[in-house]
Specification:
The protein is α/β, with parallel strands linked by helices and 280 residues long. It has one domain. Helices cover 33% and strands 11% of the residues. It has a 4-stranded parallel β-sheet, sandwiched between helices. Helix 2 crosses helix 4 (101-112). The radius of gyration is 18 Å and the shape is globular. The mean pLDDT is 94. The structure holds iron/sulfur cluster (SF4). Iron/sulfur cluster binds at residues 77-79, 123-124, 126, 225-227, 230-231, 234. The site of iron/sulfur cluster has 12 residues, from helix 3.
């Protein structure tokens, strides 16, 4: 079993790198959240978007070679993976055997910060389960838990010198990954698949109905999310604003980030992941 958040006491002591799912903007303010995480004692804070970029590259390579009649199903959402494993076992062979952005980013973090504990923060209820199979992840915290931790104000002494920017691996365009269809939109699939060859479906009911029909026609790629709207509809999102407002928040965050002046060293360069295999 993985260590759970209950074994973390705040403020934390030791070395920790936090990987933040980009859907955080629905529940928390940017960049204030980075400062708050540092005040809890987390010394490195990165975003998951670089992991998403690496995963996209692998998906693009695979789908480019995908012959007609070959259906590939995204495996970045553990909710969907669990659904297929439990209810649609015939489709298990169609799941793409590439790590999720969480696992990809954890591998990068362990390479760059080998002495740090890796903590993942997300709105997903399946991530703790997924992390149990990943040796690179030490702790998983959901947005509800983070909100409670912040409310308890278990901060270290106020430090005016703490940075409000992510440490490394900035990647702007994959900030829309938590929106349904975000993977397809950011993996440059338009260049290699036609509209009839790729579809995005979100929400467990719609996904189940689609899989039950089994009418895949010319489809080569199925981009699926368990939650309605994608991860912004995740169970540990606290905000009750309508989905359309959640989407606007994510897009606003993308716009804001694109305007930021990020030094080259902080950018998510693929060469930094050299030697890391994302194959399951
Ligand atoms: S869509 Fe829902 S179940 Fe899937 S990864 Fe996102 S939050 Fe988790």
């Amino acid at each position: 079993m993985k260590k759970s958040v209950k074994t973390l006491s705040f403020p934390v002591r030791g070395k920790y790198v936090v990987m933040l799912a980009p859907s955080f903007v629905v529940d928390f303010s940017y960049p204030e959240i980075i400062l708050k995480l540092r005040r809890l004692g987390f010394d490195k804070v990165v975003e998951l978007t670089f992991g998403a970029k690496l995963v996209n590259r692998e998906y693009h390579k695979l789908l480019k070679k995908c012959p007609s009649g070959c259906l590939m199903i995204s495996s970045v959402c553990p909710g969907v993976v669990s659904l297929i494993n439990n209810k649609f076992s015939k489709l298990k062979k169609n799941l793409i055997l590439i790590d999720s952005p969480m696992v990809a980013m954890a591998k990068v973090c362990k390479k760059i910060y080998p002495k740090h504990n890796v903590v993942f923060i997300s709105p997903c209820e399946f991530k703790k389960q997924e992390a149990e199979g990943c040796k690179e992840i030490d702790f998983v915290i959901n947005f509800n838990e983070l909100k409670e931790i912040f409310a308890k104000k278990l901060f270290k002494r106020e430090d005016k010198n703490l940075s409000t920017s992510f440490d490394r691996f900035y990647n702007d365009y994959t900030k829309i990954y938590p929106l349904a269809g975000g993977l397809s939109k950011t993996a440059h699939l338009k260049n290699i698949l036609t509209n009839k060859e790729s579809i995005s479906i979100d929400g467990i009911k719609r996904v189940e109905t689609f899989l039950k029909k089994g009418n895949f026609g010319k489809l080569k790629f199925l981009d699926v999310n368990f939650c309605v709207g994608g991860c912004v509809g995740g169970p540990y999102i606290n905000s009750s604003v309508p989905l359309v407002v959640k989407k606007l928040k994510v897009r606003g965050y993308l716009r804001k980030s694109k305007q930021e002046d990020i030094p080259e060293i902080k950018k998510g360069l693929v060469k930094k992941a050299k030697g890391i295999s994302l194959k399951k």
